């Protein structure tokens, strides 16, 4: 089998790889220097679209419409663009073995790739733990089934989906078409589960969401924030079953899922099941060869790993945050900025120079139905809720501030206009001191808007004095 050598290789062909290619081109990488190896059959695309516009009934998104980097406001990189730049896009090629010490890796069909600088961008994989750990219960189900002569299948039953890539999304679309007006059970109450619940409802499915936590998205939402979304979803006709988990499935004779069995004994009919229980960084290829932290590949603020000439970025990377507690595994919202810093750091290192540290402000957003929220900063400390968070309001608009040691460290806003979202982002970035929590309660969103205005005036004064 052939051995191919490149100056730079990116393993993984997702959001980070596309953004990195764009920055490599900007930084003057020469034709033939960069290769991207991807398991997927298509050029890098905006993965978040898969749970949103890709599933819309009208005005839906399809490739090439959402190739990277349109999601972060950049240009759309079509497959031809990579050709024009002399960037090798090696698609449908899974990397099976990595040898970081030998600066080489091997694809599943046996082709060897050598590199001088490696960028790991393998992203994350769906977490099948919840379903996989059905173990004991499923075993007992098998016994019951044998006794009752019903056919039971595990998580492999047809029409059980884990949405990660475009192939999964196409499978889900087919099922939506085939099961028109059918029943859909969403396992999970997190980020993707909530978006998918809305998308399936828009497609006229009868949707039930099941999750064990007392409210949806507990890692980010307070009980008050969650109460709004749960109320809103209920009003749209989505049933929410909390405090229990899915522990098994039954299937029809044709292998299609038929029922979801819950731990509390309830059984839900289902034509489609979507498991949205989170992801895990895809580090397996590099296990034991590179330092890991919090489940991801540990990097410094320049995305350097513990191995020389090896960098990691995106979902697979754990990099330190200045303003928040956690080491953050990437989100697509930060990818363009992160990859710019990373490629500039690689290029600068080649010339013996350095670049400014990457100072990422944690940012999450989501959209479902006609709702849209943004969050910036850290969700730690006391909270203050403001605005109209009634799920029955014609135009709900509300938010929450997180206050730690007298400073606003995080801010959430539903229904904000672009300039209002900008204002809460500034607040989370500069973390102003607050006199009293009551002041925040009384001023609500105005606190952020006033702060933005005052900062702007201060900047103007500074500029004039200068
Ligand atoms: C359905 C869905 C909805 C989302 N919605 C949002 C959202 O609304 N907002 C948001 O900020 N984020 C969202 N995300 C998360 C966001 O998509 C990720 O943070 C982002 O894609 C991370 O980019 P990445 O390059 O690290 O990984 P990915 O984009 O996942 O790319 C990883 C690539 O590596 C490839 N790969 C993995 N292993 C190998 C291997 N061994 N050999 C070759 N190739 C390999 C994969 O096939 C894939 O192409 C969503 C994710 C999903 C799945």
TrEMBL record:
It comes from the Eukaryota. This is Uncharacterized protein.
């Amino acid at each position: 089998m052939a051995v191919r050598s490149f100056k730079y290789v990116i393993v993984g062909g997702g959001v980070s790889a596309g953004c990195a290619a764009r920055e490599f081109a900007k930084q003057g990488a020469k034709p033939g220097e960069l290769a991207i190896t991807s398991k997927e059959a298509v050029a890098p695309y905006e993965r978040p679209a898969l749970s949103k516009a890709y599933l819309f009934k009208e005005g839906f998104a399809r490739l090439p419409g959402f190739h990277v980097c349109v999601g972060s406001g950049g240009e759309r990189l079509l497959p031809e663009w990579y050709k024009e730049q002399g960037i090798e896009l090696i698609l449908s090629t899974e990397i099976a073995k990595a040898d970081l010490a030998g600066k080489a890796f091997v694809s599943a069909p046996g082709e060897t790739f050598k590199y001088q600088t490696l960028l790991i961008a393998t992203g994350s994989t769906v977490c099948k733990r919840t379903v996989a750990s059905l173990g004991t219960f499923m075993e007992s189900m098998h016994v019951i089934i044998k006794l009752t002569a019903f056919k039971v299948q595990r998580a492999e039953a047809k029409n059980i989906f884990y949405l990660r890539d475009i192939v999964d999304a196409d499978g889900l679309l087919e099922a939506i078409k085939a099961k028109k007006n059918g029943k859909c059970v969403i396992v999970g109450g997190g980020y993707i589960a909530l978006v998918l619940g809305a998308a399936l409802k828009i497609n006229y499915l009868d949707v039930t969401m099941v999750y064990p936590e007392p409210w949806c998205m507990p890692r980010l939402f307070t009980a008050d924030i969650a109460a709004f979304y749960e109320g809103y979803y209920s009003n749209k006709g989505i049933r929410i079953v909390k405090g229990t988990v899915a522990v098994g499935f039954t299937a029809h004779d044709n292998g299609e899922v038929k029922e979801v069995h819950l731990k509390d004994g309830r059984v839900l009919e289902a034509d489609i099941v979507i498991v949205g229980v989170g992801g895990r960084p895809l580090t397996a290829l590099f296990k034991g060869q590179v330092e890991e932290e919090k489940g991801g590949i540990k990097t410094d603020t320049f995305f350097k790993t513990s191995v020389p000439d090896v960098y990691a970025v995106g979902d697979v990377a754990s990099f330190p945050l200045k303003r928040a507690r956690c080491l953050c595994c990437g989100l697509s919202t930060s990818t363009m900025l992160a990859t710019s810093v990373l490629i500039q750091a690689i290029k600068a290192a080649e010339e013996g120079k350095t670049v400014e540290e990457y100072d990422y402000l944690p940012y999450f957003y989501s959209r479902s139905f006609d709702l849209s929220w943004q969050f910036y900063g850290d969700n730690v400390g006391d909270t203050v809720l403001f605005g109209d968070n009634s799920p029955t309001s014609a135009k709900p608009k509300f938010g929450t501030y997180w206050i730690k040691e007298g400073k606003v460290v995080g801010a959430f806003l539903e229904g904000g206009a672009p300039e209002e979202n900008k204002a809460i982002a500034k607040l989370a970035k500069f973390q102003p001191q607050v006199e009293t929590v009551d002041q925040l309660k009384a001023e609500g969103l105005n606190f952020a808007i006033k702060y933005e205005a005052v900062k702007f005036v201060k900047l103007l004064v500074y500029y004039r004095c200068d």
